[in-house]
Amino acid sequence: MLDLRRLRYLVAIVECGSMSAAAKQLGIAQPALSHHVTELERLVGFRVLYRQARGVQATEKGEMLLSHARDIIERVQQAETAIRAVAGTDDDMIRLSLIPSWATAFTPNIISAVQAVMPRVSLRVIEARNEESLRLIGLGKVDMAVSLVGADDAADDLIIKETLYAVSARSIAPAMTLKEVGKLPLILPPKDNPLRSSIDKVAERAGICLNVAMEIDGQDTIKRAVTAGLGATILSWNSIRSEHEAGQLRAAHITDPVIFRSIHLLKNKDVDGKTFRNVRDLLRKIAEDSVRPKL
User: Fold this and answer.
1) What's the rounded Cα separation, in Å, for the pair 274 and 283?
2) pLDDT tens digits along 161-172
3) Cβ-based neighbour number of residue 84 at 10 Å
4) Is 210 a residue whose pLDDT tops 90?
5) φ/ψ (deg, to 5) at 278
6) Which of 35, 90, 208, 252 sees the fewest Cβ atoms within 10 Å?
7) Alpha helix segments (H runs only) across the chain
């Protein structure tokens, strides 16, 4: 009655928090994913997911099925590892979680670099927001995660400090002071967001009051609001690269002072130091070699 593939789909949907995000991670069309959920609910005889405006979550009975699904998937993974060991292969898999801006900008580069540096490693890339990446690391569901939260900027896990830009759909100067940016009607993440924290700390130290017209939790939604002309925002270049190249959004260097956000690589306890350093170093090189905007 239970299908392993559909159990994997259920776990992915709950962990991603939405059908669309899970479909993107799994590489299947959202209607097809919805069909599999419907079939799973028909087979088990009860509803497993609540579909809400802000995403999906498991029902009470769905949580029971989800627990079994995770156990089954973990056992299958253990069996696959044991089989590879018996077969005499030393291939390994790295499950790497990337924040959306990095997943969009760097996934092909990361795959190529891993294949070149670690040819026996199979890479699985998972796109997840920062909070979800931290949860996946804590649960041992990913091996490493590119995150906006780390030890500190001098720590071993730091990948790069990304410069932040003022972003607007309207005409904007190539460079603006933070004071000038602060006068724009800004659309920013909520105060508990790591990006917002980076922005607020710099503004507070500089004695600059930001005109926050709207708070939106979600980078893609912020970009859509800015594209619609509802305000401006502050984001990294990687976050708006495709929209800038398409002429939908314009970016300005923020000066006096410059704002950075720190990008870290976290690992779970089972990842050895050598593998961590190899991945961290190739991510550092990819980030440092990335094309800067021509404004």
Assistant:
1) 14
2) 999 999 999 999
3) 14
4) yes
5) -60, -45
6) 90
7) 4-16, 19-26, 30-44, 60-86, 100-117, 130-139, 178-182, 194-205, 219-227, 237-245, 273-289
